[in-house]
Specification:
single chain; mainly alpha
Length: 67
């Protein structure tokens, strides 16, 4: 489980927080981004600069939503 892997890597992120990140409802901190990249064996650039899947096009991510 992702939450367990994150905790083993020293990052305490619960299932609810992970769900919000996946749904684009929560920001990812720089530290979280670094740990996620390490767990998935990719660069932080690969996590940040990817194409938007067709079913998500047109939807704003959390970082673009106005307050």
């Amino acid at each position: 489980m992702l939450a367990d892997r994150l905790q083993l890597a020293g990052l305490d992120l619960d299932k609810n927080a992970i769900s919000k990140i996946e749904a684009g409802e929560r920001f990812v901190t720089d530290i979280e981004l670094k740990v996620l990249a390490e767990i998935f064996h990719v660069s932080t650039d690969e996590l940040v600069y990817t194409e938007i899947p067709p079913h998500k096009k047109g939807k704003k991510c959390a970082s673009l939503k106005s307050n």
